[in-house]
Write a structure and sequence with these properties.
439 residues, alpha/beta, Aminopeptidase, 2 domains, six-stranded mixed beta sheet, 14 helices, 13 strands, 41% helix, 12% strand, binds zinc ion
Length: 439
């Protein structure tokens, strides 16, 4: 382990000597080699703080957003949605009258600051380059158009993997003998396929990030052990093997899997919006002895609510800024609101409520919250993230057992559609309502 650290130390030292030759030649004897000079003269930059499997960012990717946002709008988005308070970006992002200064490497201020200049009254507004089409740029449709989603490309991300991977993911449980296991990755895929059929008939082009219960990523837990050990070492210190194994597993089914789906979304699908489908669950009272919980609720998420720890990750910070600069907030919020209203009518579920630290409310709609999740941060387009139904609620369990039946069936005295169709209908109605209003 010491060898790895030493190797990294050397690599960093070398990196500096290559990146900033001017510093060396101006102050020191030129007969000494660059590498040695750095080791003797300057503290090497520590390894940057990054999210799991994150990459050191290239700050020049923000160059295209120079002078595209006013100070007022930048500040409002940062404070109102993306962070909980100024303390979450203190020392990392400084807002001045004409520009924002953003630290490039949070644990190494000597690495410099990126300067993002604001749009001022003297300049004309510039079009922002983006891979998705905003509603006002879409073809206008007549009010009675029977394909209100015509020409809209939607990526649907069925959350989790399911199948033989559901146990590792911890998104599966069985209660009772001879019952169908309740498995989130399989359920989200069912809803995704119904949505694909229904939204296509309304004119949308639909692409799923996965169509089977297999991972999108090629990497597996065992491929990520070294990476997990290193990440733990750099972020938490020495870790026992059991924690390394758990981290590697999480890196497989969350970090690597979602990052691979993000590559698909951002580089191949390039949709106008993305829908991340999930089912919620409430914490078990005793995880070793699963028993039904009474709670059942609904909420939708847009991206936001970054903590200080998250903003201090260099890759996370630039990704948050890119979402601010692409102005996804406005579409995510209005779309989420519209769909939350139709889903609330469809499912008759009460809203879930966060305590304000892991999720933040951005308006008066009790169903809509902002939260920073890997998928709604990495998919570079407006993203609505769904968390309806608690999978470990008794009625939800019965409805999963009932499967995809036609028509209505009675649950607790109320006749209901099958749970997958009900979920999809809530989403479809909301999308249609939204696009009828804005197109
Ligand atoms: Zn989920």
């Amino acid at each position: 382990m010491r060898n790895t650290l030493f190797a990294r130390f050397l690599a960093v030292a070398l990196g500096i000597s290559i990146g900033t030759p001017g510093l060396i030649s101006s102050s020191l004897d030129k007969s000494i080699t660059g590498t040695l000079v750095v080791a003797a003269n300057k503290t090497p930059a520590p390894h940057p703080k990054l999210a799991r499997l994150g990459k050191k960012p290239d700050w020049s990717t923000l160059d295209k957003y120079q002078r595209t946002i006013t100070r007022a709008e930048f500040q409002r988005l940062l404070d109102h949605c993306y962070t909980r308070s100024g303390a979450d970006y203190k020392g990392l992002i400084q807002v001045f009258e004409d520009r924002a200064r953003i630290i490039k490497q949070s644990n190494h201020p000597e690495g410099g600051w990126y300067e993002l200049h604001f749009l001022t009254d003297r300049r004309k507004t510039k079009e922002i380059e983006r891979d998705w089409t905003a509603p006002w740029q879409m073809e206008k449709l007549p009010r009675n158009e029977n394909q209100p989603l015509k020409g809209i490309h939607i990526a649907i991300d069925p959350g989790h993997i399911g199948g033989e991977w559901a146990d590792i993911e911890g998104r599966k449980y069985t209660i009772g003998e001879d019952t169908i296991p309740v498995q989130e990755g399989e359920m989200t895929l069912k809803v995704a396929k119904i949505l694909q059929r229904d939204l296509t008939s309304l004119g949308a082009k639909i692409t799923l990030t996965r169509t089977t219960e297999e991972p999108v990523t090629k990497l597996r837990t065992e491929d990520l052990t070294k990476e997990a050990r290193l990440w733990l070492l750099e972020n938490k210190g020495l870790a026992p093997d059991s924690l390394v194994e758990a981290t590697a597993r999480r890196m497989f089914y969350v970090s690597s899997e979602i990052r691979e789906r993000a590559v698909l979304v951002n580089e191949e699908i390039k949709p106008d919006l993305a829908l991340c489908l999930h089912f919620d669950a409430s914490p078990w009272k005793n995880p070793y002895k699963p028993a039904f919980r009474d709670v059942n609720h609904l909420h939708l998420l847009i991206n936001g609510c970054y903590s200080y720890g998250e903003v201090s990750e260099d890759d996370t910070r630039i990704e948050m800024l890119e979402r601010i600069l692409q102005r996804v907030y406005y579409y995510e919020l209005r779309m989420a609101e519209e769909i939350a209203n139709s889903m609330a009518r469809e499912t008759r579920l009460p809203p879930f409520s966060y305590n304000g630290s892991s999720g933040k409310s951005v308006n008066s709609n009790p169903y809509v919250w902002s939260r920073n999740l890997l998928a709604n941060r990495k998919f570079m387009c407006p993203v609505v993230f769904f968390e309806p139904y608690c999978m470990n609620n008794k009625e939800v369990h019965s409805r999963v057992q009932a499967g995809e039946y036609r028509g209505l069936k009675e649950f607790g005295g109320i006749y209901k559609k099958n749970i997958f169709q009900e979920y999809a209908d809530g989403v479809t109605t909301g999308l249609v309502n939204y696009f009828r209003k804005v197109r």
